[in-house]
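debug: dumping io for the single-chain case to check the tokenizer round-trip. Nothing else runs in this session.
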Amino acid sequence: MRIEQASRAQLETWRDELRAQYSAYQQRKLALDLTRGKPSAEQLALSDALDGILQGNYALDNTDLRNYGGLEGLNPARKLGAEILGLDPAEVIAGGNSSLTMMYQAMQYAWMLGPDGKNAWRHESGVKFLCPSPGYDRHFAICEQLGIEMITVRLTDNGPDMDQVESLVRADQGIKGMWCVPKYGNPTGCVYSTETVDRIAALGKIAAPNFRVFWDNAYVVHDLVDNAPALANIMERCRAHGTENSVLQFTSTSKITHAGAGVAFMGASKENLAVFCKQLGIATIGPDKVNQARHLKMLPDVAAVKAHMQKHAAVLKPRFDCVLQHLREAFADSDLGEWTEPAGGYFVSFNTRPGLAATVVKLAADAGVKLTPAGATFPYGKDPENRNIRLAPSFPKLEEVDLCMAIFTTCVKLASVEQALAS
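debug: decoded output
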């Protein structure tokens, strides 16, 4: 189906056929959901051995796990986080279940007190953040709540458009940071190239002293294929440029073990961690060390983590294959859309013809398939071209993913044909 080459008579025939298909889906009164990248029950069950794994032994690392203290987390947990992030254990702290919480705290501290403990963002006028897009809506929500102006940066297959990033940073010292999801980015699945990582590491040489890159490496071990693409080590590149303080790194086990009961990690220079922990020590007496010990019992090192992630891939890959098969069969020889084919992570990004994302999302909802709201992958929920839709196939059962995609592709075709007829 190629809209640009079709006659009006052909478009009307397609419209009638598609309306009939769509009506048939509506009559089924479905309630399906492709909105968020939650692990499926099958994935969560892979870690059910956590329950009772300590067998009453609450001593580890010369610590009574049941008691207060240990603000930076258990040393073996910090070592595990360091292995995952490619850092020294002294550059990592292990926390509670959510890396998003750590990011929020780091942003709050930077706003109120300064990422260096002295140059608070709130004392400056016109604080801005760079937001490579399509991106993660929860990142954008943090900036919006704090009143930080977001600047959309084009996201390429290799990461942020670094020519644009460097030009903006040089021209405006009010830019205080940038969000990054460097491996299997949400939602495109892109992996930052080595050149991009190096150029991001060098930003500290041209940015304001209290500039920080928030490096959300949520999917660092979430490969779906063998021989997965590698991500360059951002801290190694920062050391080469003398910019170690310019990047804060985050990851967690949220999509490795139990999503609501995992362990989060923050990695940074020793100077940055000292500033963060000074403020953290006012907010908490320490993380859940019992849960950290449970995870260490099941996943003692990064080799165990990678072996565990192969089990996740066996569950996830058929769902991704199903999504991609539908998209290829429906649109491979068409001008109706384009999409990513990630080697890992949790999402597939689809672009409709300009101006159609919101229409497709509404059509899908009216046929019983919830999708992430159009615009959610851009700052302020405003996709300038109204094109991008994030597909999240992890949570539904495989047969539900199959049905969701059949309805989704029908909605894309119907919206495209009706747009063409109206123009």
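debug: round-trip ok. The first strand starts at residue 32 and ends at 34.
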